[in-house]
Design goal:
Number of strands: 2
Shape: elongated
Mean pLDDT: 81
Strand order of the largest sheet: 1-2
Distance between the termini: 88 Å
Helix content: 40-55%
Number of helices: 5
Number of domains: 2
């Protein structure tokens, strides 16, 4: 006797995407605005794409270095001292050019107040730690 043919059931796949999770990136508009501020001239699209790749690689390397410094110190969090060590190794901070001078030179007043302790009236030091 002939057996009736029945279709084989195929197990359903889970609907998870096969894509790798993307790393967070700086917004393109921010990179473009910063680069235009310093370049002060028109930039072609090809040149801007190269600038974008370079900035991504730079910040990736920067974060990896900061992670290594904090890990070497036996901590799980990155502190300001790690950033200062990194900037010293890059040659941005020296004995003649301390970090506070760079902050005063390049950051707006509201950020300076957050980063540099300043004595205020009433004998208070802002920001308090």
């Amino acid at each position: 006797p002939l057996k009736l043919l029945q279709p084989k059931t195929v197990p359903k796949r889970l609907r998870t995407s096969q894509k790798k999770p993307r790393e967070p990136q700086l917004p393109r508009s921010l990179i473009k605005e910063i680069f235009r501020h310093f370049a002060k001239m028109p930039v072609t699209r090809d040149a801007f794409q190269i600038v974008e790749k370079c900035s991504d690689r730079y910040f990736k390397q920067l974060s990896d270095d900061l992670e290594a410094y904090s890990h070497h110190a036996g901590r799980k969090t990155v502190e300001a001292a790690d950033l200062e060590v990194l900037m010293r190794r890059q040659g941005l901070v020296t004995d003649k050019m301390p970090l506070t001078v760079l902050i005063e030179r390049h950051l707006p007043l509201e950020y300076r107040r957050l980063l540099i302790p300043v004595a205020m009236s009433g004998n208070r030091v802002m920001p308090c730690k």
